Predict the 3D structure of the following.
Amino acid sequence: MDVKKPASQENLNGDESESQISHLALDIGGSLIKVVYFLRSNGSGGSVDDSGKKSDPVLEGRLHFAKFETSKINDCLEFIRSKNLHLAGFRHHDASASDKTLIKATGGGAYKFADLIKEKLGVVLDKEDEMDCLVTGANFLLKAVHQEAFTYVDGQKEFVQIDQNDLYPYLLVNIGSGVSMIKVDGDGKFERISGTSVGGGTFWGLGRLLTNCKSFDELLELSHQGNNRVIDMLVGDIYGGSEYSKIGLTSTNIASSFGKAISDNKELKDYKPEDVARSLLRMISNNIGQISYLNALRFGLKRIFFAGFFIRGHAYTMDTISVAVSFWSKGDAKAMFLRHEGFLGALGAFVSYENHGLGGLKTHQSVQQFAVSKTYAGKKICCLVNEDLNDNESIDFGVAFAA
Amino acid sequence: MAGLSEGQTPVLEIDGTLNSNDGNSRGNKGKDKAVVLVGEENSNSNIDTQNQQGGSGGGSEREMPSMHRSGSRPQLDLSKAAIQGNFEVKDPTILLPNQSDDISHLALDIGGSLIKLVYFSRHEDQSIDDKRKKTIKERLGISNGNRRSYPILGGRLHFVKFETTKISECLDFIHSKQLHRGGVDSCHWNPGVQANDNAVIKATGGGAYKFADLFKERLGVSLDKEDEMDCLVAGANFLLKAIRHEAFTHMEGQKEFVQIDTNDLFPYLLVNIGSGVSMIKVDGDGKFERVSGTNVGGGTYWGLGRLLTKCKSFDELLELSQRGDNGTIDMLVGDIYGGMDYSKIGLSASTIASSFGKTISDKKELADYRPEDISLSLLRMISYNIGQISYLNALRFGLKRIFFGGFFIRGHAYTMDTISFAVQFWSKGEAQAMFLRHEGFLGALGAFMSYEKHGLDDLMVHQLVERFPMGAPYTGGRIHGPPLGDLNEKASEARVCLLLLEMPLPLNLFQISWMEKFVLKGTEITAPVPMAPSGTTGLGGFEVPLSKGSTLRSDASALNVGVLHLVPTLEVFPLLADPKMYEPNTIDLADRSELEYWFTVLSEHLPDLVDKAVASEGGTDDAKRRGDAFARAFSAHLARLMEEPAAYGKLGLANLLELREECLREFQFLDAYRSIKQRENEASLAVLPDLLVELDSMSEVDDFDAFKERMLGSGDNKPRPHKRALLFVDNSGADVVLGMLPLARELLRRGTEVVLVANSLPALNDITAMELPDIVAEAAKHCDILRRAAEAGGLLVDAMINTLDGSKENSPSVPLMVVENGCGSPCIDLRQVSSELAAAAKNADLIILEGMGRALHTNFNARFKCEALKLAMVKNQRLAEKLIKGNIYDCVCRYEPAR
């Protein structure tokens, strides 16, 4: 987290900080609600470093991650209530404000559902800027978590060691319902340079219309088994199977997504949902990869990190984006992904607590390690498809509090 | 010269005469006893193997245009040409046994949805086998012939589309016009003659492979496949260089034509949106690279659209989008932020955050969404995406201009708007999307250009004239009136078409059968086949309608594609001070109120014009029918223009006036004011002697200050006479006889050479270059100055022999000459003038423009390198107020010193 700020002098009331130590932050997007919360490990407390000098108290604990579909916000609220997470928010010091608990939140839904949450949980959402949160979250992960970034080529993921001193500038592509492309130059220094409306919402929206899938994940799952050649017009379909090498295309390149669906003889029902899903996924991934690469090129950015719920650690999605970036850059650029890609915003919101006087929530430089345990929290409710990259795992943290 | 056909080999001319080239020794082929008999009356047939063109310059040196072609262009080999069959029949087939097989003036682009044809017809409006025409020629004094021929020679480039699924109609069309054998104008197809089995036609597009066998089987021709990308680029380069106002921007429904400096054209990005999208960086002719593309293109729109809606055609889907509201489908920024803008990152509430982002709702199924909304959402998604990727690529390669083409656009206003919006949005206003009027024909044009020696590649802008035949108003897919139903339905608005069949025109049999075929299709066909003057293949601007009763273009977004007339003899008027900045039109009809005003003026004038036109043709039933048809056709043009002022490109008043003349010619009213002109000329000539006497008795010409001073000098300062003056004459009658001729005489008297510049083709009652010599000759009888000058100018070649005192003076006079201006309009666009005018202008130091059309409607603001005088009486109150803050019948005399 790299919080260089001096310890807070903001009237931090010791016992209050002790009692409010677990934190909750939300990222309420158009499709999903991402929840990040911190739970203290048992028995951890202030520590004394080697020098024997009393250092900041460090609270060991875990950051937990959970997701819910936005349409099922009630499930999410129930989850928060069941864990009493809403009581963990930051309580305003001003006594007169009494029990008003503030919870950091970001995403469009932070506005939309503010009243609902107030009503149901009795907490007030403290809205953080979405883009700020994204970038803060990404910077936090890239600097604080080992093996956060990886490439994905031909089904093989490979972790990339990022030199923290050579991290900036980079392009952060957040694929939510839509896609935001953000040039990040440092902590808090960033600019949204581009984006596209063809994103995860498009995949899920079109996918829902075209298939009978009941969930985003089901659609993703389907795409795994599909064959897009039935739907897409390939270069080979146009040029009779011969490669159109003159312009650098091979016969298996997609010439026109859904280009074969124009056939008079077939209706929607005549196509397999798997194929449709696959074609859709490739179309969208390919497109995002291309636009991202072009923007990275434009601003001379060496690295492109892809994040957002669309990816969800889904191998095929990452694969198509990687292929697109590699294809359009002629191999010069590689797509990189973040293990906690879906939680950038929520993490950013979480980190933003520090700015409100709770004190320096500091990750201990030495303490970041991955917990192997998964939270079961989200699973039960939203049936996340967890592949080998489990984005629902928690991270152990040492949280240091300024004296 | 005969346009493209000037050169070394003989060419079958419009008027059925055979031209060898201008004295070039390589043109000997033509001297083979080529005999072309045309017309039903052999006694009148023009068999003329003389060089008819050489002496036509009225004494001015005649310069060949710079773009000489080598003799290797496909030309018709007329040697041993003979009439085939019975000489008594109309339109006898001309057998050209020596015509080589590989001539083709047809190229195809066979795409997945549409077949685009570009074909070239090498001939002129008028043909000799038209009796009417012949008599006019006689009356106008051309038949005795050394004069000039019509300027609109060269040939025409036609653009036609068919749906690929209806390829049979396309084949019929080609067959009926014998395009696969070089066109009906070159050699009529004769079932008995298996002329050219080895004919090769250039083709591009995926279907060039797919349908190769079908073409072989049905037409006996092989398709020579050209690379698609090559063709696209060649076609785009040709259009951008050769056609003025080809490119336009399209923002929020507003078209604006962009003048592109051909010297600063490259590099540019060409984005071709077909099934997929190709983005091509073009650095020059034949120099290009496919730099990018996207698989999200027209095929995606149509493919996804088909799956999501019940649309049966691409156009139906597009049409749906016009009534859609994508707010029900797309997740907007406002939806996410509760109606608020996310202004921090420059997104307004209506910005699409996620295409189809709202259809994730559990409660709704596909059937619950309106197909209109889905179509619009799809369209916006894909258009934005293409615009964005295009801009990023242009940026990457530092390309200033992005041109979008391909079937996805199809002149569809909303598609263009969305692409434009995307480019503007992502470039923050720094880049603009541009579109091409002929976008659908890039590939076909490119394939056409790939015939190595067609001689079109160097054509300059000023050598092309785009004309919109009577069929043009219909080609937008909108029919002005009920569709064609019953052949006998006389009241039908679309009767213009049917008239074709009733008209006793010597239409080629095959044309008739082809037209019948289409007419009989009834309601399926909404576009009438434009009438072709007999003996021509002038069936341009025709577009097979794509969907019945389509209101797709009810937003009037479609741009008409006219027939390109290639007139290699046209040149830019050399005395224009700044040709690049020159805009002929004084009145820009983009201004709605102007358009409405002139629309009314022209509409009101129409009945009178029709009466005159019919009378000019003797008031016969045939003439009446044609007059009726003309009125309908011109009204349709006007209606189309009211609906979409940019339909035919940039529209100025001059274009509108010319369109009317074109329309008259289309219906074979070659000179509606013929008798009126004659009468007025005679009357004026009768009083000329008196006027001249009166003028001579005056001390000075009636003129005014600045010009007066220039002409007469002030005080002792004796002015230097002008070397040569160009007098652009206007009306027949008093205007020219009692106005311009006396003025010419004054100038001649001062030792100034005078070149009378007159219209090439009749327009209103304007005097033409063909009529003028006779008038000068007549006037010369009364005036020695004129006579000697006319003799010196070669105008009285024949008369000289009769003039007894031809040798009476030894001091030769400065010459009086007549040149044609290359126009057939009451106005003049000085970017496109005849080569003889251009040649005559070289030594000129005074320009006098006379009349409303040439001095006010056009050229009022033109600036010249030499002195110029603009004279006109303003015969229109509105114009008087607008231009000179004066009143109707005020006289304008604008003198401008040399620049």
